[in-house]
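Bug report

Summary: C-alpha cells for DNA-directed RNA polymerase specialized sigma subunit differ between web form and batch submission.
Environment: batch mode, default settings.
Steps: 1) Submit the sequence below via batch. 2) Compare with the web form result.

Sequence submitted:
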Amino acid sequence: MAVAEELWREYRRSRDEKLKHEIVMSYLPLVKYLAGRLAVKLPACIGQEDLESFGILGLLEAVEKYNPDYGVSFKAYAYNRIRGAIIDEFRKLNWIPRTMWQKIQSLNNTRERLQGEAGETVTSETLAGAMGISLPELHKLAWHASRLSLSSLDETVALADGELVRWGDMIQDPESPDPLDIIEKEEGRRLLVQAIEELPEKDRLVLSLYYQEGLTLKEIGAVMEVSESRVCQLHTRAINRLRKKLEQASGLSRCR
C-alpha cells in the first residue's frame, strides 16, 4: 500500500492527474477498511458503500494536502482524514442530535444486557432504574429511538374491511409522471441502447461487467487480465464515449 517518497515528491511538483490516480488507487483498501469498521457502529440504513464514498472524499483531500516533508507517513495522515470525512458526512445525514444518539445507544445496550442476565423481557421500570432516569424520560427516549426505525413500503396492512394493502399503495404521489414524460424516458432508453451498441467491444465489456454483473474494478481486472488502475481508465473512457454518442443522438432526435 505504501507509495514511494519519490512518487509523492513528483506529484507535489507536477500535480499530474495520472500520479494522483495511482496514489488514490493504492490507498483504496484503507478506505474500505475504515468504512467496514464504522459500518458496524452505525444504523443499518447507512450502507458500507455510502461510507466508502464519503471516505474517498477524505482520501482525495488528504492526497491534495499531504506534504512528505513533515515526516509523517501518508497512511497515518490519511487515516484521520478519511475517518473524519465519513463521520462528518454521516452526521449531516443523521437528523438525531449527537447527544440523543448516545442516549439511544445506551438504552439499547442496557436493555440487551438486562435481557441477557434475566433471560426474559425487561420491564420499563427495571430499565429506567438501571439507567438512572425516570419513566417519563425513558418513554421520551424510546419515542426518539422509534423515529430511527424504517418500515418497508412493501409491508402490508389490514384495512377496516379486512383487505390487505401495501403501505406504498396508500401514499399519494403528487408528482405522478405525465404520460409524455414516460414517452420521453422510453426514447431515452432507446437512444442509450443504440449508443452502447455502437461502442467498441472492450468498452461494452467493461460497462456490462460493472453495471450489469456488478463486479468491482479489481474483479473486472481479473477477468480482462489487466490492472485495476487500467480498468478504471477504460471505464472512464467508455463513459466519456457513451456521453458523446448520447449528446449526438439527442441532437439528431431533436432535429427530427
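Above is the batch result. After comparison, the two runs are identical; trailing whitespace caused the diff. The chain has three domains: 5-93, 98-169, 179-255. The mean pLDDT is 76.
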